[in-house]
Design goal:
Elements: E1 3-8, H1 13-25, E2 29-31, H2 45-61, E3 64-68, H3 76-87, E4 91-94
Parallel strand pairs: 1-2, 1-3, 3-4
Helix pairs in contact: 2-3
């Protein structure tokens, strides 16, 4: 069993949830980001910073991260999470294979 934090753009929420379910069914403990709902209030910049900081804490707790890079997309925030995980010597897994990474 590994502890795996899911990383990626929140625009791929459905894919992230499917990946999390699949990884849990394989016997892993999966940590997901916070997914705002349609009824969620707009978040302030300060609140978004708290979410980002907490996501990095989740990475610290993990053995690995799994990057949900649909169609190869990796945004700025996700790239910073990958670099953070690398600095902590965490295993980096990708949903879609990367040719140039």
């Amino acid at each position: 069993m590994k502890i795996i934090t899911i990383c990626g753009s929140l625009k791929y929420k459905e894919e992230m949830l499917k990946v999390a379910l699949n990884m849990e069914l394989k016997g892993n403990c999966v940590i997901t980001p916070i997914f705002p709902s349609e009824n969620s209030p707009a978040f302030t910049d300060e609140e978004i910073k708290v979410f980002n900081d907490m996501h990095k804490e989740k990475i610290k707790l993990s053995d690995a991260i799994l990057v949900v890079n649909v169609n190869g997309y990796i945004g700025k925030t996700t790239e910073s999470e990958i670099q953070y995980a690398k600095a902590l010597n965490k295993e980096i897994l990708y949903l879609e294979r990367l040719e140039n990474k």
